[in-house]
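chain below, 192 aa
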Amino acid sequence: MKLVFASNNKNKIAEIQSMLPESIKILSLEDINCFEEIPETADTIEGNAILKADYVTQKYGYDCFADDTGLEVNALNGEPGVYSARYAGEQKNADDNMNKLLGELRDKENRSAQFKTVITLNLEGKQYLFTGIAKGNITDEKMGTNGFGYDPIFKPENFDETFAQLPLEVKNKIGHRGKAVQQLIDFLSAAK
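prediction:
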């Protein structure tokens, strides 16, 4: 089975492909010659995942899945949330985003947060949603070099390391994206 993943983020594609059975092959947007920026104009994480999946299905005719992820910080009323990728501006720079977030939390005691991933699957004319959540805390400084995005400042519950310090296999098992992808895999396996 071939499924388009509505992304050109090579880190995400590799992370998800490594979790899928060999019978499921992921195609990137580049693989289907989709080079335009898909608008993410919804005001929820779910809404953006649906927009991206629908864009590929309607414009290119492929079964596909799309994800959107946000970091929701309790002391900031759920920010950056749907704006996580561009929290510090349209340049979408991970270091800028982390620096801004650490600045916003400088004098806050409550550093609890959660990562939320929603995957929208468009398959054979039907749409399915899968949600994965990883709870944890925001650290005082960046630690680790694995992963991407906010991984160096997010320490998952029951761990002493950040996502950026954990091996990929561990992060995939306990992480928000891993949990959502596992639901997707279970669904696809059952649907065969």
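The chain has one domain: 2-191. The first strand starts at residue 2 and ends at 5.
thats it, cya
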